[in-house]
Amino acid sequence: MKIAILGFGKSGKSVYEALLEKNQDEIFVFDNGKLPDNPNFFGEDKAQCFFDMHFDLIVTSPGVPKHNPFIKYAQEKNIPIISELEFGFRLVKSKVIAVTGTNGKSTTVKLIYKMLKKAGKRVIMCGNYGLPLTKAAKVSNLVDYLIVETSSFQLEFIDTFKPFIAVILNITQDHISWHGDFEEYKKAKLNIAKNLSNNDFLVRNLDEDYTIDANNIIGFSATKDKAHAIVTKNSVIINFKDSFEIKNTKLIGMHNMQNIAASSLVSLICGVDKNTILEVAMNQETLPHRLEYVCEIEGVKFYNDSKSTNLDSVRKAIESFENKQDIVVILGGKHKGESYSNLLDLLKQLSGVVVFGEDKGKILSELNKLKPIPLPANNVKGAVIAAFHIAKPGGIVLFSPGGSSYDQFKNFEERGEAFKKECLAFKEEYDKAPRL
Fold this sequence. Notes:
Number of helices: 15
Largest sheet: 9 strands, mixed
Structural class: alpha/beta
Helix content: 25-40%
CATH architecture of the largest domain: 3-Layer(aba) Sandwich
Shape: globular
């Protein structure tokens, strides 16, 4: 076969290496960036020769949006297009647990991994969390389960992908520029369950408004008494295969209780006992950049929630704290399409708002009805200082931008590290300052 790989990041490289090892196909690589010297590699301007060639299969990377000219051309020519997720799945020799959702995927994957591992199962985390699925597939014959974090980008182009357990945590506005509109985004997310058989399971949030055709639906809910897991702001009550309550966890907020509910239900399906589930759930720490405590300055606590790259995650972060009136939130980054005015009902309950980043002007415009008036900041350092000075004694500064990090940073991790660095530097400077 003549195969084209679109994008040569982590996903594209894993596909290329797998095809090289197989040594049966003619492989071509295309990327907008610079590529290593290779007669079959076409980077930067050379990538345009894609349109003069014919291929039997396209394997695309998550960073290539579906409106990309290469994708559109392949669709017009009826060339099959699959994602790295689909490619990798075709090589898998174990059962797959796949987790998707707008928010909470990584935390849930980590919880499932720890619960299954503690129960003696052989497991690997992969997909968006850790190894690409294609790399993990190479050793899948040695494990019981691959736990795969899946994005809408990967699920857009699947064909045979069929997990043993599919998990849909939540679906809210995000990645509209990639998919075109919310309905297309939701459709891609729901693809995770399209191939489930009678022997497979779907774990889902029953409070979300969508219908899906699956035989074995195991649900969690904050409103439905007959759900397999009942979620409150501070606890989870399980009524599936066993009955028990999980509370007083290190993870906080309704969204984290939903993550715990989903991971517990998955683990019960896989035969994990309740004591193991309880032990893991009780001791799981917050992952970096997700409501991560940083430091305290003069009684004001600073939290890093840089993973917040959409407005639903901002809302969930704020609602994780008891006293909203004590919070100063730092918003900003690269705007992703949904108006920040959708947060006005919540932001008006806070102590203050600071806005930074490339699109701060647009965000401030969308919040022009908010009182007190949000403060602009040129960068993360300025945002930290401004937020501290308007915070109440004993208050909270919450760094939960809601926008993409790509305006000033490589990713949300780099943005979160920058926030922590500025907090700690400001704390050191403040603590050394003379007091009158």
